[in-house]
Design a protein that fits this description.
heterodimer; A: alpha+beta; Cytochrome Bc1 Complex, Chain A, domain 1; 2 domains; 11 strands; about 15% strand; B: alpha+beta; three-stranded antiparallel beta sheet; 18 helices; about 45% helix
Chain lengths: ~450, ~425
């Protein structure tokens, strides 16, 4: 078995019991034996053998998402994700799903501002077939006009479901647009309604040709396969697909056209009020954050967990479990993207709580809490929670493939989790307090609320 | 043990050995049956305690009592305040959550193996010494009520809640285990203490564990701290029958949300105990054939061919004494009637004819997706809990592909009509 699980019970991220001394290095806790190959056309492939069950998971990451869309074609990354299931040259419409589900497998995809990811899990005996299907749609997507028109309606319904008919969807949508105003991350991944309706097949095809090139993608395969055989198979099917030689310049040009990633919105704690169906206001408080990578990004992750992850977090104690609670729930998150980031706190008011009072007290409580209430034990608690979270995600081939793929996508190195874990472990309380002081300021924030008492826009 | 064989058979009909068979064992800890899946892949564990009683035991007008008794265990004990309990459990990185149905309940804990003993000691302490302070109870109820008051802000959840209530009317299962705006306010601290006492001392339990050898040390914790022994009570719930149902099967409920630009649709009904107890593989397969994947009939027609929705699904699920069958989707307001007609068309067509290619593909999908539902060990444990609850032998896992292979198109047509006849 080449997927090595060294299940030592370690001191990693601190210890709550004595039975942890004399244990091995923390990096032995998780270890993947990854075989990798980069084809001449730039396509990178990583394979991990796991023979526990005769199953395999196959992930394809494309370095394209909402941030690459220019005015008029917003939503194209996501729309293309839908069209990738609508047939190619060798496997026409319907064949892909028939092949996957007909072999007992499952498949899906998702699009973010940064990337588009496709995944399939199926019995490993079908690995060659799935490689063939994936190679077909990477180079010969059909974009059948009839399906193209029909799928627009599907996406419009998805948009209504996720954002237009859900207060939580609406407020999140507004938060991303306002925090990243006039930057590529302000472009809604689902797209503007008019753009979804009006985008043409030619525009989407051009987008496909630009971004669905082998040098803009990588593949992760985990399961009951022979790694060398699989690498050879991928090379034989994908090796002839031409790379996009102008990719780098094209991306640069788009980013420049879209205004770059520096924050350009209006902040200073302004209040964006949205009309919704909820009887008790839902709020989000967004602060300018940082992109994936720098140490501050990790520190802010820890800070968000200390402030708002779990019932014993600082904000939960202050607002939900307090003697006179103001909120029914509260959370905090640090959303790091490849080029920028946003730190946000959200929740819902209890009946009778004042929105203005909550808004104003949040700033002062966060500030004072960071200074006076964050403790070493809370820091250790978060580190322990992260370890459980890491390990819990590795129970299936799909979990492992995503774990590896995400590190490759965000850090350019699937092995980065070792450094990631080291970094979290090394963070000290003073750094967390300093980051709080530095980033969670009213002048760098926008407050959002949605309520049935706000005026209709 | 047949589990191994089962999974192997399901997956690829003769592929390779599977670690599950060698590692699934049963033990008896102080009269409580323990099902233990030994797994040392990682230093983490899952523990689920199954109780043979659920929300059906709630006193009349106090619906939500059982759920609250479990959910508020951490609000205070004779020794610890809420803050101390939460800090301790969360410091270990532990997750702890109850799951309550009308028929049974489970309490699920997971975390790092090295902290399993102190975590479970705290959990046992909560079970034995919870005080449910009045102040905390009031605050918790207020929080839950906030969620219920604001259901209209999530149209899908609102539709599902209404459908649940309407479809189960007069079956004995119409009151949600989470309680209602009215019922939650009637529950007292004393009610909850009495309830948890009942679960501690009277209700029959079973313990399911996934984790390495070290988990054996929990035996002493369950015996000495939880003090759980051979509880005998298994609460029987009523068998849902047709005659108890008053409403017409074709009643249409309209919930108006002003300015909504999309209509949520739920179609279906409850299943009687008799319907729920037979032909489970045929029922599962039929609902999956109609609306269980991207290649299902409803998905292909309503989404792929007509672009009327983003998603559509059908289901037929059961517990011991009742079940529900239904179709769930949404569409823009303007195409509501068209969507309903199209759904009806697909259903009626399926009652009459089934394309062989679709049928064979659905069979392969059913067998494969069943397996993937067992791939993660925690999901596997959940399946074992459910199998034990409904009295299904673990061998059924082994037999599932065989059972699916034995289904004919005529059987599916007939079952489709029985389940989803408009």
């Amino acid at each position: 078995m080449k997927l090595i699980w060294i299940a030592a019970i370690l001191t990693l991220f601190g210890c709550a019991t004595k039975d942890v001394e004399n244990k091995k290095d923390k990096n032995e806790l998780i270890h993947f034996d990854v075989k990798e190959r980069e084809l001449d056309n730039g396509l990178k492939v990583m394979v991990v053998e796991n023979h526990k069950l005769p199953l395999v998971s196959y992930y394809t990451y494309f370095d394209v998402g909402g941030k690459f869309e220019t005015p008029g074609i917003t939503g194209s990354s996501h729309f293309l994700e839908h069209m990738m299931f609508k047939g190619a040259k060798k496997y026409p419409e319907g064949e892909f799903d028939k092949m996957v589900e007909g072999s007992g497998g499952k498949n899906n995809a998702y699009t973010t501002s940064d990337m588009t990811v496709y995944y399939e899990s199926l019995p490993s005996e079908h690995i060659k077939k799935i490689i063939d299907v994936e190679a077909d749609r990477m180079q010969n997507l059909a974009l059948n006009p009839k399906s193209f028109a029909s799928e627009k309606n599907v996406v419009l319904e998805e948009r209504k479901m996720r954002y237009e008919n859900s207060d939580r969807g609406k407020i999140y949508f507004s938060m991303m647009q306002n925090m990243f105003e006039n930057t590529p991350y302000g472009i809604p991944v689902i797209g503007k309604i008019e753009d979804i309706k009006n985008v043409t097949r030619d525009q989407v095809f051009e987008y496909f040709k630009t971004f669905y090139a082998p040098n803009n993608a990588f593949i992760v395969i985990v399961g009951d396969v022979d790694a060398d055989e699989v690498l050879d198979e991928v090379e034989s099917r994908f090796g002839d697909i031409p790379k996009n030689k102008n990719l780098k310049e094209q991306k640069k040009e788009i980013f420049e056209k879209n205004g770059g990633f520096d924050f350009k919105g209006k902040y200073n704690g302004r209040h964006v009020k949205l009309h919704g169906d909820t009887k008790d206001p839902i709020f989000m408080l967004g602060f300018k954050g940082v992109k994936v990578g720098p140490r501050d990004a990790y520190v802010l992750d820890i800070l968000s967990s200390m402030l708002g992850q779990g019932d014993s977090s600082f904000l939960s104690e202050q607002y939900v479990l307090a003697r006179k609670p103001l909120l029914s729930n509260v959370y905090a998150a640090n959303y790091t993207l490849l080029e920028s980031g946003v730190f946000f706190v959200g929740g819902q008011l209890l009946k009778g709580s004042s929105l203005e009072r909550v808004k104003n007290s949040l700033y002062s409580k966060i500030k004072n809490g960071c200074k006076n209430s964050l403790t070493q034990r809370q820091l250790q608690k978060v580190k322990n929670q992260y370890l459980v979270s890491y390990l819990s995600n590795l129970d299936t081939n799909q979990g492992i493939a995503k774990f590896i793929g995400d590190r490759q996508a965000f850090y350019g190195d699937y092995n980065f989790y070792k450094k990631e874990m080291d970094t979290y472990e090394s963070i000290e309380l003073e750094e967390v307090k300093t980051a709080c002081e530095k980033y969670l300021n009213r002048k760098d924030s926008i407050f959002f609320s949605i309520w049935n008492k706000h005026k209709k826009q | 043990m047949k589990i191994l064989t089962a999974l192997v058979f399901i997956i690829s009909f003769g592929a390779k050995a599977n670690y599950l068979e060698d590692n699934l064992r049963r033990e008896n800890w102080n009269g409580v049956e323990v099902v233990w899946l030994e797994d040392d892949s990682y230093p983490i564990y899952d523990v689920s305690v199954y109780f043979s009683a659920g929300g059906y035991t709630d006193a009349k007008g106090k619906y939500g009592e059982t759920q609250l008794a479990f959910d508020l265990l951490s609000t205070g004990t004779t020794r610890y305040k809420q803050k101390e309990i939460l800090n301790t459990l969360e410091f270990y990185g532990a997750s702890y959550q109850a799951s309550v149905t009308h028929e049974f309940s489970s309490y699920n804990v997971s975390g790092l193996v090295k902290d399993a003993v102190p975590t479970m000691k705290m959990v046992c302490h909560m079970f034995r010494n919870a005080t449910y302070p009045n102040r905390e109870l009031k605050k918790s109820v207020k929080r839950i009520k906030t969620g219920l008051r604001n259901l209209p802000s999530n149209h899908g959840s609102l539709a599902s809640r209404i459908f649940r209530q309407a479809s189960l009317e007069n079956t004995g299962y119409e009151n949600p285990v989470g309680g209602t705006l009215k019922s939650l306010g009637r529950i007292s601290s004393g009610d909850l203490k009495k309830k948890i006492g009942f679960f501690n001392d009277e209700v029959k339990k079973r313990i399911y564990i996934k984790g390495p050898k070290e988990m054996k040390s929990l035996k002493a914790v369950f015996t000495n701290d939880c003090k759980w022994g051979s509880g005998k009570t298994v609460v029987d719930t009523p068998k849902a029958t047709k005659k108890e149902r008053k409403g017409s099967a074709n009643t249409v409920y309209l919930a108006v949300v002003p300015k909504a630009n999309q209509a949520q649709i739920r179609i279906g009904n409850f299943m009687t105990a008799e319907e729920a107890s037979r032909d489970y593989e045929l029922r599962d397969f039929t609902s999956q054939y109609l609306g269980g994947g991207f290649t299902s009939r409803l998905m292909q027609e309503i989404r792929v061919a007509r672009g009327l929705t983003y998603t559509i699904g059908s289901y037929a699920s059961e517990q011991n004494n009742y079940g529900r069958k239904g179709i769930s989707t949404f569409t823009k307001n303007e195409t509501l009637v068209e969507t309903l007609s199209a759904v009806k068309e697909v259903l009626e067509k399926s009652f009459k004819e089934i394309n062989d290619e679709h049928f064979q593909m659905a069979k392969r999908y059913a067998k494969g997706s069943y397996l993937f539902g067992l791939e993660s060990t925690s999901a596997f444990l959940s399946n074992l809990i459910y199998f034990d609850h409904v009295g299904r032998s673990y061998d059924e896992i082994y037999k599932f592909p065989e059972l699916i292979n034995g289904l004919t198109k005529d059987m599916v047509k007939k079952k489709a009509k029985e389940l989803f006849n408009p």
